[in-house]
């Protein structure tokens, strides 16, 4: 399973699993890595390219052995790598060249001295040998990442210790209301005392 934000997405089980890997040297001096695998449900062989040490992009899709045989069924004695195109879903000439190189590495194709490719090896025996190989165990899906207790407790502490804006507003209103009702009345004005009249003026 993969956790994306707050959502947990189930990963689909793989349709193919590799039973062995190999590397073949290319003509330009680079190395091409590929895998031989089997369909999990049917056990049918398949191949895919997984690495390229030199220039050239490629697809890592599995190419079914039966689809390769079907694409080559009507091929002439010598044919180009593009003859494999119907067996490969991904477009691009590199994919046909690289799958052809993997088939050369497996001894199922050979390069003709005048250019192009020719069939080689025993395709039936190769297919039976791959079908007989055991499939590796499918690794269990990794559990989604869980929150650490420390971070969870910190979140709870923040939630409990930090008052919300609404709560602060209510407290402020209560404080204003309390101050208007409980404030003491203003003091009464003090009348000034009358000054004594001098006796001489009074007589």
Structural write-up:
With 203 residues, the protein is an alpha+beta fold. The protein is built from six helices and eight strands. It is elongated, with a radius of gyration of 42 Å. The N and C termini lie far apart (114 Å).
Summarize the structure.
The chain is α+β, with helices and mostly antiparallel strands. It contains six helices and eight strands, in the order E-E-E-E-E-E-H-H-E-E-H-H-H-H. The longest helix has 18 residues, at 165-182.
Topology:
Layout: E1 2-4, E2 7-9, E3 16-25, E4 31-39, E5 45-52, E6 63-64, H1 65-72, H2 93-105, E7 109-111, E8 117-119, H3 123-132, H4 149-161, H5 165-182, H6 199-202
Antiparallel strand pairs: 1-2, 3-4, 4-5, 5-6, 7-8
Q: Share of helix among residues? A: 25-40%
Instruction: Give the distance, in angstroms, between the N- and C-terminal Cα atoms.
Output: 114 Å
- Give the overall shape: elongated
Regions with little confidence, pLDDT below 50 for 5+ residues: 1-9
Number of contiguous helices: 6
Strand order of the largest sheet: 3-4-5-6
Radius of gyration: 42 Å
> For the residues shown, what is the average pLDDT?
78
Note the main sheet: 4 strands, antiparallel
Strand content: 15-25%
How many β-strands, per DSSP? 8
Structural class: alpha+beta
- What is the N-to-C succession of helices and strands? EEEEEEHHEEHHHH
